[in-house]
């Protein structure tokens, strides 16, 4: 019985840690999103709040079960129900608004690519995060390398430069950030097709990653929901089994 309450405290710690990781991470695709999108930061704070609340609920549930306190078990059940409903609602919103979210993400990344400047120290963390994404996913741009043709520096260099993190050559990846030069530029006619870069856009790479890990993601979400349902069933069962004291049987002084 108490193992389930302990699981909730562990689950809360995991959710809390995930929210903190989103805010603290500086070297992944999450960093690109959380630095550019206020909604993701808000989501991270919500995760931290939910994680802390889940840990607290696990403690209160255990306390209520040990001391047979109905109000604590009732509070535990109510909070779990609210958390579960919120999670289902959030999942439905993400599912039905996925095209809008995809469009917003596209706008964020393309804006980053257009203003990418390795000499701009103010945007260094954000740009390093995007370079990391392109290297790890082996992709270039959002929809493809052509997105980089809108970069102001590359335009001024007549397309004779390309992002090193996009390159399919190991010597360029050693640099890892900034721009590399074409070995044999074609005067006045160079395009992204002449760059030694990956052909896949990062949008396709991210979608493929989600497809490859969809089973794991759904499994984790289902596992969390099952644990929450078990906690609700257990708390309501304990609450029903706790009998109130019959004070009419207490001898009067």
UniProtKB/TrEMBL annotation:
The keyword Protein transport does not apply. It comes from the Eukaryota. Pfam families: Tetraspanin. InterPro entries: Tetraspanin/Peripherin, Tetraspanin_animals, Tetraspanin_CS, Tetraspanin_EC2_sf. GO terms for cellular component: plasma membrane. It is found in: Membrane. The chain crosses the membrane at residues 6-24, 44-66, 72-96, 216-238. Keywords: Membrane, Transmembrane, Transmembrane helix. It is a multi-pass membrane protein. The keyword Nucleotide-binding does not apply. Belongs to the tetraspanin (TM4SF) family. This is Tetraspanin. It comes from Sakesphorus luctuosus. The gene is Cd82.
């Amino acid at each position: 019985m108490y193992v389930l309450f302990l699981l909730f405290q562990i689950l809360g710690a995991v959710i809390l840690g995930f929210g903190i990781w989103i805010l603290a991470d500086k070297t992944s695709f999450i960093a690109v999103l959380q630095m550019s999108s206020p909604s993701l930061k808000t989501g991270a704070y919500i995760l931290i709040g939910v994680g802390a609340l889940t840990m607290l609920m696990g403690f209160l549930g255990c306390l209520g079960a040990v001391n047979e306190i109905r109000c604590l078990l009732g509070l535990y059940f109510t909070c779990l129900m609210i958390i579960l409903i919120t999670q289902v609602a959030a999942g439905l919103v993400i599912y039905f608004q996925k095209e809008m979210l995809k469009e917003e993400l596209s706008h964020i990344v393309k804006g980053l690519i257009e203003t990418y400047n390795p000499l701009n120290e103010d945007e260094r963390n954000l740009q390093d995060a995007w370079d990391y994404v392109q290297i790890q996913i082996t992709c270039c741009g959002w929809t493809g390398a052509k997105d980089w043709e809108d970069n102001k520096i590359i335009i001024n260099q007549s397309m004779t430069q390309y992002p090193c993190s996009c390159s399919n050559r190991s010597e360029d990846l050693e640099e890892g950030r900034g721009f590399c030069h074409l070995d044999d530029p074609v005067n006045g006619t160079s395009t992204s097709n002449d760059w030694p870069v990956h052909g896949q856009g990062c949008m396709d790479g991210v979608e493929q990653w989600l497809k490859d890990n969809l089973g794991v993601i759904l499994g984790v979400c289902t596992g969390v929901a099952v644990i929450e349902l078990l906690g609700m069933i257990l708390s309501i069962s304990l609450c029903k089994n706790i009998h109130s004291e019959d004070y009419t049987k207490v001898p009067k002084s």
